[in-house]
Amino acid sequence: MASGLVDWRRMYRDAEQLLSSLGVHLDLKTKARYLSVAQQQMVEIARALSVNARILIMDEPTSALTLNEVADLFQIVRRLRENGTAILSSRIVSKSCLKSRIESPCCAMGPMWIRDQWMA
């Protein structure tokens, strides 16, 4: 922003790069109210990362998502953790992940803090 003006081209370019780095491809001119819940979550994650957030706190991020959307979210969360972003969530690990030792997207993310306990 220079002299009170918004550099829209730069803003859209930066947003496109940030979302692409998360593997998210959206029409940037779509109003948020017309995006799916999963898409809105991805935009919020990108928004947090745009200010170099090193901790991402999510409240039940999988509760309103389809299985495919949950898999996409887990992939993004895994990538963020690999890049050093701490992820705190009240409900990101599925019950099946807690009950089994099989390698699933959520179990592969490594330790995280879930409801007053460390999950490995």
- Give me the side-by-side strand order of the main sheet: 1-2
Q: What best-fitting shape do the alpha-carbon axes yield?
A: globular
Tell me the domain tally.
1
What's the main sheet like? 2 strands, parallel
- Would you tell me which CATH topology applies? Rossmann fold
C-alpha termini separation = 44 Å
Order of H and E elements: HHEHEHEE
Task: Count all strands and give the number.
Answer: 4
Number of helical elements: 4
Which homologous superfamily in CATH is the superfamily?
P-loop containing nucleotide triphosphate hydrolases
Q: State mean pLDDT (0 to 100 scale).
A: 76
Give a description of the structure:
The chain is an alpha+beta fold and about 120 residues long. It has one domain: Rossmann fold. Helix content is about 40%, strand content about 10%. The chain contains four helices and four strands, in the order ααβαβαββ. A two-stranded parallel ribbon has the order 1-2. A hairpin with a 2-residue loop joins strand 3 and strand 4. The termini are far apart. The C terminus is likely disordered.
Quick rundown:
This protein has 4 helices and 4 strands; from the N terminus they run H-H-E-H-E-H-E-E. The chain is globular.
Main attributes of the structure:
120 residues, Rossmann fold, 4 helices, globular
